[in-house]
Design brief:
With 305 residues, the chain is an all-alpha fold. It has 13 helices and 2 strands. A two-stranded antiparallel sheet has the order 1-2. The N terminus is likely disordered. α3 packs across α13, α4 runs antiparallel to α10 and α5 packs across α8. 74% of the residues lie in helices and 3% in strands.
Amino acid sequence: MVAALLTQGTPGRSQWASIRRSLTGWRFVGPFLALFALVFLAPIGYSIYLSLYRTQLIGGTRFVGADNYIEALQDAQFWSAFGRVALFLAVQVPIMLFLALLLAFAIDSGRLYGTSFFRMTVFLPYAVPAVVASLMWGFMYGTQFGLIGNLDKALGITLPDPLSPHLILAAIGNITTWEYVGYNMLILYSALQVVNPSLYEAAHIDGAGQLRIIWAIKLPAVRGALLIATIFSIIGSFQLFNEPSILKGLAPNSITTNFTPNLYAYNLSFGGQQFNYSATIAIVMGVITMAIAYLVQLRGMRKEI
């Protein structure tokens, strides 16, 4: 009896083997989970913690609960910044993805000479850091010292100032399009490479032209990749920071401290020492971005089905 109980209470050889296999798996994923918790979960948790407090000159730091979030939802400066990036997204993202799609179709057609060189040339701007790209384009936009100014002097005319308040958002859109159209082109072009060539042959035999092939074969093939590129572009648009931050020194009257939500949160934190409210703005913007990206994903998946 005792021997039987001891036998039942002691793991068998197969159970020890299963435990060892489980521990082996955790040893493989453990470093990733630790790094993920350190660089992703911990900052989010700390930001949420900061957003629940408020630091005042009189009374010090105290717990305020959801007061910071209520204030953020009623903040006109925040919603002005949000509306600006929403307009940026609605105009710039469709143009960028349309150009990326055209380039992907052109390269995939096989009718271009030097396809590899052309593909690398279009993708190359993505390798340029956003700060460098903003400085470079900012210099070209200058009416006193840059390309626009030189053209004004050479032609004896006055071109529109890209850094003016009415054109600054379009100027930033041009920079981001130049930076990321090659990246999105590569995503779409990669999706086209998995299409079975026999589909094109069958379409040619049936007398289908290039436009019909694009509509019936290529567009359905890149629909999933186009959805991914759209979600990435939405997230990137709401995170707009580098370009306006760099151009602010060249166009201080056009780019305000709340030009974008991220720039607003940055200036609140490092300029106004309002760390708690800055964390609140970041959390609210993150939730909005996540919700919109998720809705776009759901809509795209329904179309695929």
